[in-house]
Specification:
The complex is a heterodimer.
Chain A: H1 3-45, H2 47-57, H3 63-66, H4 82-109, H5 117-136, H6 145-162, H7 177-214, H8 230-263, H9 271-289, H10 298-321
Helix pairs in contact in A: 1-2, 1-4, 1-6, 4-5, 5-6, 5-7, 7-8, 7-10, 8-9, 9-10
Chain B: H1 20-23, H2 29-40, H3 43-57, H4 59-62, H5 70-79, H6 83-89, H7 99-128, E1 142-148, H8 155-168, E2 172-177, E3 181-188, H9 190-213, E4 218-225, E5 229-231, E6 239-242, E7 255-265, E8 276-286, E9 293-297, E10 303-305, E11 308-317, E12 320-324, E13 330-335, E14 339-340, E15 347-353, E16 360-368, E17 371-373, E18 379-381, E19 390-398, E20 418-422, E21 431-433, E22 438-440, E23 447-450, E24 468-476, H10 480-499, E25 503-511, E26 517-525, H11 532-548
Antiparallel strand pairs in B: 1-26, 2-3, 3-25, 4-6, 4-24, 5-7, 7-8, 8-9, 10-11, 11-24, 12-13, 12-23, 14-15, 15-16, 16-19, 17-18, 19-20, 19-21, 22-23, 25-26
Helix pairs in contact in B: 3-7, 7-9, 8-11, 9-10
The complex binds protoporphyrin IX containing FE (HEM).
Protoporphyrin IX containing FE sits between chains B (5-6, 12, 41, 43, 46, 50, 108, 111-112, 115, 195-196, 199-200, 203, 493-494, 497-498) and A (284, 287-288, 290-291).
């Protein structure tokens, strides 16, 4: 068995373990829902408790308060959960296998493992999980586990089935330190954007729940009650997204420097350049929206969601189907 | 609430004068202008224009653009004869220089300038202002915490010490003392707004340098066969695109000779067999009035010389073909760049012999560096290097169409007014030549020779038998360095504006009724500031440590010093 075959074996194992982690995280969400159900049953019997819960989820949170600790402003506090811990442990295990797969692929090729679609996907998803695990040490975002493992599974599945290519040497146009820098930073930025996307999406769910609760109407997706308030989620999403934005700004510049070296012009509105620019502009819009009256909250969250959709589009559709100088999908 | 993530003294967040519109129902022209300007420079408009710009950039990735893909545009016109002209009227093939795209970004940048100037003024004022008075009740503010001062501490002295501590940490400070209490008000993070202004100004800088600066440069293309020399002058370019303000007197006439062009191909990894690994154009550069010096141009490693940047963009084979008349007199000899058609360098080229023969002769040639034959009998190349080279020539005689004064491409042959003498459909099949071989042209017109470029080679070794060509892009852009400088400023501005926290901190010493002194600490976030409370707590700890530690506490004289 050669290094590349080992890498493939390791990757498939990682996918198996991610799938188990996904199941554990899903069980956790289900548990959250039933926990909320129990609390709501209690509330029906004690109207005061219900009033208190509503007050807690109302818009009283201030920026200064949330910055202390997150997760303690959930409408329905949610205790320890075995499945959550199992989910995280499995994710760490899968991440280690994933890392091994990536490193082995790099060793097999004798270069960085991000020079074609298969490798971008493998390294990009590895970075998504890495960012997730690092952020977990600073904030309890374990409730995003289903999203992260699910997204990574889908992307890896597509990569393994549709984008797989054999190890090949780098074409001269890619032999540059800028490949190492530019593509790596872009993938890292994508990791942050992915997390920001998930936070913004949950923020929208949470906001909807909060509005329903405020109008004293029934809510669906009960587990949302165990998650931080929409204001907290918005702030978290913002922090994650601006890191992504800075990395993306750097990606854009590094790409221009490389384009100047390889093609003789730093900017030529090539399709891939156009999409990198579009993504940058959407996120600049997102940052502005956060500072514009009437655009904070759900509207800015939608911009973050559109931004990440554009990132996925840029990776999955533009690379494969659009014509341009960046014909490096290896397909 | 709406201005949480920005300083509240921010320009845009200045509250609108209430009732301004009501008391002034009729706006004059200047009133309208002012209203329009306020709208244009509002945050909402900036946001709207940014999103509009993102949307407007999309079509250019869906439809081929003249600037980056002119052949694609031609193809698009051929494929969509009805749609294409309609799209053309709305400049869909020139999106990024179109009137509508330009309008959006110019408006955005006018808005940006209109935004940055007042904010800069405002910021300069803020830099000189003193921090605001300490609030009466700190308990409601972020990170509020208290400490008991060591017995015998004097409030004013304690605050002096806090003031020193804050100044050391980069805060600007102001003292506010009353009878019962002393306090210091401190603010830091002006750099945040500075960074933001640098960021936005640098964006304007990029736009201006790109907009005007590109007019001073040029780009040109030149194909060189091994052995050929190019002199950097207008006429020597195959194509030349000057910027609007370019003056060709500025061309530095250095000489560039292509000595050798080498390509390494993958031969070990069967899955990537024949893939090029490395291209190197070995050249000799002779700056005017200086000695020649060797240099190399590679993909990703342009040659910077004579104020120009020389890029290696393409390469291929340039078979040397000689045509003689029936008497053996040479009427044509040249190395002709053949355009590669696929990864294994099956190449297509055209030979035109206008004079010296009975009729004008045109030939369409296919060159296969490693010729192989498909089941159908068609030839193809199975490897890009010279393993088993073969040249086939389709021969036509008649009018080359050169005399009508219409410029014709050297890469194409119009056979409409010519007779096919040797093609796949005529009785005489296309001529087939290996390097060094000669064949008679049909109809007794003469002979054609495929010259061996390396006559001394052993029999069967074709490695140097055909010359290669390299195509170079030669650019001059005097503004590139400026763009880079502004880009770096953009990045630095962004980093400072997003990571430097702007915050206010207060320390208050209050004399209690029992004579002891209570120290109060609190902060105020001015923007998204997750670390504020930790910073206040750390300040409180360091301050109490300083008050109790003998070495640095001037208030309670340490016993051993007395
Ligand atoms: C070329 C278009 C523009 C781009 C790409 C852009 C981009 C950005 C970015 C990336 C930020 C966040 C980083 C920072 O704070 O420095 C930002 C912040 C800001 N921009 Fe712009 N901007 C543009 C135009 C404008 C215009 C026209 C205005 C004025 C109306 C404006 C006002 C602001 C303000 C006030 C902030 C601070 C927001 C905050 O503190 O969160 N920008 N801009």
């Amino acid at each position: 068995m050669n290094l590349n075959e080992l890498s493939i074996l390791s990757l498939y194992s990682a996918m198996g373990v991610y799938a188990l982690a996904f199941i554990a995280f899903s069980i956790d969400l289900a548990r959250r829902s039933s926990a909320v159900g129990a609390v709501q049953a209690d509330e029906l019997s004690s109207p005061e408790a219900r009033g208190a819960a509503e007050a807690a989820s109302g818009g009283t949170t201030t920026l200064t308060r949330i910055s202390t600790r997150i997760a303690n402003d959930a409408a329905t506090p949610y205790g320890r959960s075995a499945s959550l811990r199992v989910g995280v442990s499995l994710t760490v295990l899968a991440w280690a296998l994933h890392l091994a797969a990536d490193v082995l692929r790099g060793l097999a090729a004798g270069r960085v493992p991000w020079a074609n679609m298969y490798e971008f996907a493998m390294t990009g998803t590895l970075l998504i999980v890495t960012v997730f695990l690092i952020v977990l040490t600073r904030a309890d975002l374990r409730f995003l586990g289903t999203f992260v493992t699910g997204l990574v599974l889908i992307l890896l599945g597509i990569a393994a089935l549709r984008f797989y290519v054999e190890v090949a040497p780098l074409p001269p146009a890619l032999q540059s330190v800028w490949l190492v820098i530019h593509v790596f930073v872009a993938s890292l930025g994508t990791g942050f954007f992915a997390l920001g996307f998930a936070l913004s999406a949950v923020q929208l769910l949470q906001f909807r729940r909060e509005s329903l609760v405020a109008e004293a109407r029934a809510t669906r997706l009960r587990f949302v009650a165990t998650l931080p308030s929409s204001a907290t989620l918005e702030n978290l999403a913002y922090r994650v997204n601006i890191i992504g934005f800075i990395l993306w700004t750097f990606t854009l510049m590094a790409g221009s420097i490389w384009a100047e070296k390889a093609w003789g012009r730093y900017w030529g509105w090539d399709t891939k350049e156009v999409w990198t620019f579009i993504i940058w502009t959407i996120y600049a819009g997102y940052i502005h929206a956060r500072a514009t009256r009437g655009w904070r909250g759900s509207r800015s969250a939608w911009l973050a969601i559109i931004g990440f959709s554009a990132v996925l589009f840029n990776f999955g559709i533009v690379n494969v189907f659009f014509k341009g100088l960046h014909a490096y999908s290896g397909l | 609430m709406a201005t949480l993530s920005r300083p509240s003294d921010h320009y845009d967040s200045r509250p609108a004068r209430p009732g301004a519109d009501v008391t002034q129902p009729r706006l004059g022209t200047s009133g309208w202008l002012r209203w329009f300007w306020r709208q244009l420079t509002s945050m909402r408009t900036a946001l709207f224009l940014l999103l509009l710009l993102a949307i407007a950039a999309v079509p250019g990735s869906l439809v081929p653009q003249r600037s980056s893909d002119p052949n694609g545009v031609t193809q698009y016109f051929a494929n969509n004869p009805d749609l294409a002209p309609a799209l053309d009227t709305i400049q869909a093939f020139d999106v990024y220089s179109s009137a509508w795209f330009s309008a959006i970004y110019l408006l955005l940048f006018v808005s940006l300038i209109g935004c940055v100037i007042p904010r800069t003024k405002h910021h300069l004022q803020a830099l000189r202002a003193t921090p605001p008075k300490t609030p009466a009740r700190l308990a409601r503010l972020a990170g509020f915490t208290t400490r008991d001062a060591p017995a015998g501490t004097d409030p004013a002295a304690a605050i002096d010490s806090a003031r020193g501590l804050l100044k050391e940490s980069g805060y600007r400070v102001a003292r506010f003392d009353t009878e019962r209490e002393a306090s210091v008000s401190a603010e830091r993070g002006y750099l945040r707004e500075t960074g933001n202004l640098v960021f936005h100004s640098a964006l304007v800088g990029i736009l201006i340098t790109v907009g005007f600066g590109s007019g001073f440069g040029f780009s040109g293309q030149r194909v060189l066969v091994e052995g050929q020399t190019f002199v950097n002058s207008l006429l020597a370019y195959d194509s030349f695109n000057p910027g609007r303000f370019f003056d060709d007197a500025g061309l530095d006439p250095y000489k560039l000779k292509l000595d050798d062009f080498t390509v390494d191909y993958e031969t070990e990894n069967l899955k990537a067999f024949g893939q090029p690994l490395d291209f190197t154009a070995d050249v000799t550069v002779t700056p005017r009035g200086e000695d020649p010096e060797p240099a190399a141009v590679k993909v990703n490693a342009p040659l910077r010389t004579g104020g120009t940047d020389v890029y290696l963009l393409g390469n291929g084979y340039a078979p040397t073909i000689t045509v003689k008349d029936p008497a053996g007199k040479v009427v044509f000899t040249d190395s002709i760049p053949f355009l590669p058609q696929d990864a294994n360098l099956t190449s297509l080229g055209v030979v035109k012999v206008p004079d010296g023969l009975k009729k004008q002769v045109g030939m369409i040639g296919f060159f296969y560096p490693t010729q192989a034959e498909a089941q159908s009998g068609a030839y193809f190349s199975s490897f890009p290097d010279l393993e088993y080279p073969l040249l086939t020539l389709n021969v036509y005689a008649g009018d080359l169409g050169l005399d009508e004064g219409v410029p014709t491409s050297v890469y194409s042959l119009d056979t409409d007014k010519m007779d096919a003498l040797a093609t796949r459909t005529t009785t005489v099949k296309p001529l087939e030549l290996k390097p060094g071989e000669t064949q008679q042209l049909p109809g007794g017109l003469g002979s054609v020779t495929f010259e061996e470029a390396n006559p001394g080679a052993k029999k069967g070794d074709f490695s140097g038998s055909v010359l290669r060509f390299a195509s170079f892009d030669i650019h001059h852009d005097p503004t590139q360095g400026w763009v880079l400088l502004f880009a770096v400023l953009v990045l630095l501005g962004l980093l400072t504006s997003l990571f430097v926290p702007r915050r206010r901190v207060w320390v208050k010493a209050v004399r209690q009724d029992d004579g002891s002194v209570r120290l109060e600490y609190a902060g105020l976030a001015r923007g998204d500031d997750p670390a504020l409370e930790a910073a206040v707590a750390a300040l409180a700890d360091r301050h109490s440590a300083r008050l109790t530690s003998p070495a640095s506490a001037p208030l309670a004289p340490a016993p051993e010093q007395t």
